[in-house]
Structures are given as C-alpha cells and as structure tokens.
Amino acid sequence: MNIIMLGAQGTGKGTVAGFISQEMGWPQISTGDIFRKNISEKTELGIIADSYISKGNLVPDEITVPIVKKRLAEDDAKNGVILDGFPRTIAQAEKLDEILAEVGKKVDLVINLVTPKEEIIERMLTRRVCTNQECKATYNTKLHPPKVEGICDKCGAPLKQRDDDKDPEAINRRLELYEEKTSPLIEFYKQKGVLRTETVSVAINHLGKDVADEVVRDIRGN
Ligand code: AMP
C-alpha cells in the first residue's frame, strides 16, 4: 500500500509515518531526511539542498523528483511505502502518479494531518531529532520526551534541534509555503477519493500515535 503523509510542518507526519512503518513493515521515505543525511555528509547534493533548506525554501523538482524515483525503485519499497514530505506541490504529485503508474501502482491513501497553528509553532520549537542519520528518531521535549534528556532512546546518540526549527523566520516561511504550494494537494487527493483527514492536537487529546493506531487498525480490517 502506498501512503502519503500530508499536513503542515510540525503536525506530526514523521511520527505517524514512523509508527505505521513499524507496524506494517513498509519503509518511511522522508525527502527531508534524505536531504539532511546528505547535508551532514557534505555531499554535492547536500551542499545544493542546504542552500534552499536553510532559507526555508523548497528544493527544486529537478533535484527532488529523481531522488524519490530512485528510492521507490529499491527492493524494500515493492510492497508499500509511506512518503513523508513528498509530494509537496501539484507538479510533484503528478510526477509521483507517473512514477507509480509505470510500475502498475498508485497512491492508495493520503493521511492529511491538521493541527492548530499555535500548537504547530510550539511543536517545531520543542522538536528534537536523533543525530544518528541511520536512526533519525524524532522526539518532542513536551509531548514525547526521550527517557534520558538529550539522548535517543533507540540508539543512544545525542539529540539536537533541527537548524530550520531554530529560526522563527524560516518557520514562518515554511508555513507560508505549505499554504501556498502544498495545501492545494488536499483538494487534488480528495478528488481522487483517497484523502483521510485527521486532527492532531493536545487540546482534544488526539496525537500522532492515536492516528497511527486507527489507520493500522483500518488497514488490517479490524
Ligand atoms: P521536512 O523534513 O519534510 O520538513 O523537509 C525539510 C526541508 O527539506 C523542507 O523545508 C524543504 O526545504 C526540503 N524538502 C523536503 N521535501 C521536499 C520536497 N518534496 N520538495 C522540495 N523540497 C523538499
């Protein structure tokens, strides 16, 4: 099953994708993670990507789309994937349809996460990520803290704040970009009949783990 995570930054796409991935055994493919890995390894791709990401801009499609195409062709992606952070524009969504159609596949489910804006900003400021690029676990100092402060539960590596989560200007730029470029995807996938919208909010005590549990239950049909 091919699943797409949709929703503004800080709504918990990575958390939901991670839980579903663990339960179903389908890889979580995050374009942001792929870029961050390349940035930390100072590859050519990383240096180019960083020039966009550090300003809160999107990395151009000529770079992003081939990376996703290559990743989807890998062996572990054949039974299903959870795409987190791609597509981010209608043009990317159309490309993805083409890539999947070439191998007789399609987008089966789009999980659209909605969170009140005040909570989003708070979550971005309190988000911490594992510095081990092979692990990439994410935490939240308030909602989902690690057992030992600053240390990853899964691999023991230090946690850090993402550079683009530190700068309020970059945060706002990303939220504006989401509204302008990515939110039209909600209607795009609604038309295709694959959209599932879920509210993630502390105010109603419905968090990423709850969404993931509900989705997994529905996929398994129980
Ligand atoms: P994320 O981890 O999904 O928040 O992504 C971090 C940053 O990587 C974004 O703010 C963009 O600059 C870049 N990025 C991630 N996915 C894409 C994409 N599908 N298209 C363009 N840029 C992307």
Task: Supply the key terms.
alpha/beta, Rossmann fold, 222 residues, 3-stranded antiparallel β-sheet, 9 helices, 46% helix, 5-stranded parallel β-sheet, single chain, globular, binds adenosine monophosphate
Can you lay out the helices and strands and say which pair or pack?
Elements: E1 2-7, H1 13-24, E2 28-30, H2 31-40, H3 44-53, H4 61-72, E3 81-84, H5 90-102, E4 109-114, H6 117-126, E5 127-130, E6 138-140, E7 159-160, H7 168-182, H8 184-191, E8 195-199, H9 208-220
Helix pairs in contact: 1-9, 2-3
Bound molecules: adenosine monophosphate.
Written account of the structure:
The protein has 222 residues and is an alpha/beta fold. The protein has a single domain, classed as P-loop containing nucleotide triphosphate hydrolases (Rossmann fold, 3-Layer(aba) Sandwich). The chain is built from nine helices and eight strands. The strands form two sheets. The protein has a five-stranded parallel β-sheet with strand order 2-3-1-4-8, with helices on both faces. It has a three-stranded antiparallel β-sheet with strand order 6-5-7. A hairpin with a 7-residue loop joins β5 (127-130) and β6. The site of adenosine monophosphate has 15 residues, from α2 and α3.
